[in-house]
Amino acid sequence: MTKINFKRDGLTLVGQVERPFAEKYDLAILLHGLGDNQDTSLMRKLSSSLRNAGIANIRFDFSGQGGSSGKLEEMTIFSELADASTVLEEVRSNPHVNNIYLIGHSMGGVVATLLADLYPDLLPKLVLLAPAASLKDYINNGELMGTSFDPNNIPNKVRAGKLTLGSLFFRSFKNLSIYGSAGRYKGEVNIIQGTNDEAVAVSYAQKFDHVFPNSQLNLIENADHSFTESFEDKAVDQVIKFLK
């Protein structure tokens, strides 16, 4: 494991890279969920398992989260898209990298979908773990993480669970064409979803599977949103099988 930093618009994105012992290799960019960071159990397991399978990978903290600079209150879906594209642009110039893949969990799955729509020529495969397209509906219905607000008069800041999010975070989702981006991406997609996900209903994964032109949906019976305990191994095994 090697620590690595990326610079975007004066911000520092803190990350780690794992490489196999090979001259040339495929590389996956891992995108964490809302309020999480690169060091969740799922991200760590994905990283080590990918390396052991001969796939290099980069995991990093989105701006305003984890060890990266910036303020969480200034984070939006578009700032995360800019963070992810910064990492992708740096990776694409690496002469040791063959194929580049995206792996996104929760909100990271939404970011991965939008980024794949922008860079279809660079990204032949996409993995979505419990992709949180539900965020758009939560926001338009005026409720997120147990906090209610007026979606037509969004305050400057909203305390959602343990997170304080700025107005633009909510506004950036209101008219976001998540499934529109999905429908334009022609690469291979693996959607992995738990049937006992408390944050994202199975119906969202099913809609993704319907909209993507070249996708497969793998449901993990009784798995929760974070794929905890034994479900973590099952989810990671699905990822490795798909990318190898």
Automatic annotation (TrEMBL):
<dbReference type="InterPro" id="IPR029058">
    <property type="entry name" value="AB_hydrolase_fold"/>
</dbReference>
<dbReference type="InterPro" id="IPR022742">
    <property type="entry name" value="Hydrolase_4"/>
</dbReference>
<dbReference type="GO" id="GO:0052689">
    <property type="term" value="F:carboxylic ester hydrolase activity"/>
</dbReference>
<feature type="domain" description="Serine aminopeptidase S33">
    <location>
        <begin position="29"/>
        <end position="139"/>
    </location>
</feature>
<dbReference type="InterPro" id="IPR053145">
    <property type="entry name" value="AB_hydrolase_Est10"/>
</dbReference>
<protein>
    <recommendedName>
        <fullName>Serine aminopeptidase S33 domain-containing protein</fullName>
    </recommendedName>
</protein>
<dbReference type="Pfam" id="PF12146">
    <property type="entry name" value="Hydrolase_4"/>
</dbReference>
